[in-house]
Amino acid sequence: MELFTDRDLFIQYIYLASATMFILGIKLLGSPATARKGNLLAAAAMFIAVLVTLVNMEVLNYGLIAAGVAIGAVIGAVMARTIKMTAMPQMVAIFNGVGGGASALIAISEFVRITEESASVAKHEEIAIMLGTLIGLVTLTGSLIAFGKLQEIMPTRPITFPFQNIASGAMFAAIVGMVVYLVAVDFNETVFYVLIGTSLLLGIQLVIPIGGADMPVVISLLNSYSGVAAAAAGFALGNLVLIVAGALVGAAGLILTQIMTKAMNRSLANVVFGAFGAAPSGGGGEVAVETRTAKSVSAEDVAVMLAYARSVIFVPGYGLAVAQAQHQVRELADLLEVKGVRVKYAIHPVAGRMPGHMNVLLAEANVPYDELYDLDEINDDFKNTDVAIVIGANDVTNPAARDEPDSPVYGMPILNVDHAQHVIVLKRGMSPGFAGIDNDLFFKDNTMMLFGDARKSVTALVTEVKAL
Amino acid sequence: MADTEVLGMPLIIALYIFVLAVFVGFELITKVPPTLHTPLMSGANAISGITIIGAMIVVGPKDTTTAVIVGFAALILATINVVGGFMVTDRMLQMFRRRQGGEK
User: Fold this and answer.
1) Chain B 1-60, CB below 8 Å of chain A: which residues?
2) Does A354 lie in the same domain as A256?
3) Could you tell me if A67 and A97 lie in one domain?
4) Predicted-complex ipTM score
5) Are the beta carbons of B73 and A105 separated by less than 8 Å?
6) Which of A56, A82, A108 is the last residue of a domain?
């Protein structure tokens, strides 16, 4: 190995600066006050890394690079500007897929170059090329399926077929076999192309049996994969800044995955393979006929309760976003605050379709972030709260998850909504939530149901509160 | 290139760097409050677009080989990831406001 030239060394120092800025950027992303700065710092890090790469002696194809960057930048910018905040999970799914695809294509490009030039390469580079291709392509097709489910152009229910588990296992075994063969025996083109095809299929296969409600976990996991794929591409190219950035993103995705599975009281294995074999949770057993009755209440009465309360906690769920009622909720909260009511929002980790999604939707409706409270922060507050108002959330408020070991949702962390003096549930009808079970909350003595479309109900509340 | 070198240093050092970076990632991200998880994920996603420089390197050679064409596709995808990712993250983050001040 020849020593670095001065130019190479310069490039490496800038890459070091860039990696440092990524780390600082992520650190700043840790607080709402500095997050925007953090994102801009990371963007700047990317920019200098790109600029200095142009200085690389081997990078000569400036016209083609400019064309590629221009095409990508226009597509990316248009997507980023036009996407609706409710569709953010789909957007992130697509970006995960695109990132994985880029890493895979880099690895494939290296493979093609090596075979065309019959260049000899180190074993670890071969392994990195295989891993980059494999993980990148699984991320690509897996993300496209996740996108299809989130966008509802595909059925959101789990799609299963007989022997699916065995098929996945066989594919995985075949992939391992091919990687071992390619690295240990022969760097064979045909085998590599079969590896590409199998990886693409595996990505589809891994995500189709996962239901729409579990998408927050899937997106987080694919986010992690996209980072690992980038790191693998880094090993294939011998580029440290790719390795560092890829590792950071891989870790980020993994932590978010862990947070999401914890919030659902599931293991990762259960989310990924849960649709196989066992009947869906809550679907089994005899269906008990519901004999209890829930109390219904009018918007007028709720308005009075809210207006004369000292403290109110809003509990939004994805139903709120579906009904597009965020702005009305914020208007109602504003009116109440003027009347001296202390308003808070309790956000369950799985309230939206991806980690933190509900927070973004409320931020878009101008709800200040210091009124948004996480599960752990707010759960002890419910008992000192006059009114908890549940809008479009269901399973995450079910006391059975806390109190009844027999319940299929038992063990899932819930918001202790039922501890409030009064609970108002805004809901269309009495239908059960994702878990397919009745919510005991609806039948509690301190609970009242305000039936109807969430947006119409909240609008009615706004009108009634104004009239008081 | 010698068999176990990355960038002129032993492979093992690159692996050390990888592992340490994973731990730095864990430490940093565990501290991010749930409110910011969506922008965190889209921001991290944009950072994984660092593959853009890998794509530039494989597109580098002047002659148009298959490897360069594949690299060109990688470059487009990585740029979508970088530009789209940072822009949409910024769009989200500018919506986050405190109770007082910053109100429009």
Assistant:
1) 1-8, 11, 14, 17-19, 21-26, 28-60
2) no
3) no
4) 0.92
5) yes
6) A82
Enumerate residues 6+ apart whose C-beta is below 8 A from A399: A414, A416, A418, A440, A441, A444
Q: Would A284 be classed as within a structural domain?
A: no
Whether A126 and A252 map to the same domain: the answer is: yes
- Quick one: closest CA in A to B70, which residue? A109
For the cut 50, the answer to whether the pLDDT of residue A297 exceeds it is yes
Task: Mark whether A202 and A266 lie in a shared domain.
Answer: yes
A290 inside domain: no
Residues A113 and A255 in one domain: yes
Task: Mark whether A78 and A94 lie in a shared domain.
Answer: no
Average pLDDT, stretch A188-195?
93
Q: How far apart are CA A211 and CA A222, in angstroms?
A: 15
| Distance between start and end Cα atoms, chain B | 59
Residues of A in contact with B84 (CB under 8 A): 75-77, 79-80, 91, 95
pLDDT of amino acid A352: 86
Full domain range(s) for residue A42: 1-82
pLDDT at A59 over 90: no
- pLDDT value at A287 more than 60: no
Clarify whether residues A268 and A315 are in a common domain.
no
| Judgement on whether residues A57 and A93 belong to the same structural domain of the protein | no
Render pLDDT for B47-100 as a digit per residue (tens, 0 to 9). Answer: 999 999 999 999 988 887 899 999 999 999 999 999 999 999 999 999 998 886
| Chosen domain end from A82, A106, A140 | A82
Q: Please, which pLDDT band fits residue A118 given cuts at 50, 70 and 90?
A: confident
Any B CB within 8 A of A262 CB:
no
Q: Evaluate if residue A217 carries a pLDDT over 80.
A: yes
Asked if residue A292 belongs to a domain, the reply is: no
The verdict on a CB contact (< 8 Å) between A91 and B42 is: yes
Using CA of residue A299, residue A305, residue A310, residue A315, what is the dihedral sign?
A: negative
pLDDT band at B40 (very low <50, low <70, confident <90, very high): very high
Chain B interface includes A101 (CB < 8 A) = yes
| Mutation target among B11, B12, B80, B97 for the A interface, most CBs of A within 10 A | B80
What lies within 8 Å, CB to CB, of A450 at 6+ separation is A296, A297, A298, A299, A302, A424, A425, A426, A427, A457
How many distinct structural domains can be found in chain A? 3
Q: What is the pLDDT of residues A335-376, one digit of tens each?
A: 999 999 999 999 999 888 899 999 999 999 999 999 999 999
Q: What is d(CA A90, CA A218) in angstroms, rounded to the nearest whole number?
A: 12
pLDDT at A289: 56
DSSP state of B33: -
Residue in chain A lying closest to B25 (CA): A248
**B2-32 confidence digits (pLDDT tens):** 456 666 677 899 999 999 999 999 999 999 9
- Measure the CA–CA gap between A302 and A300, rounded to whole angstroms: 5
Q: List the CATH number of the domain containing A352.
A: 3.40.50.1220
pTM score, whole prediction: 0.90
Query: Which residues of A form the catalytic set?
Result: 395
Q: Tell whether A384 is covered by a domain.
A: yes
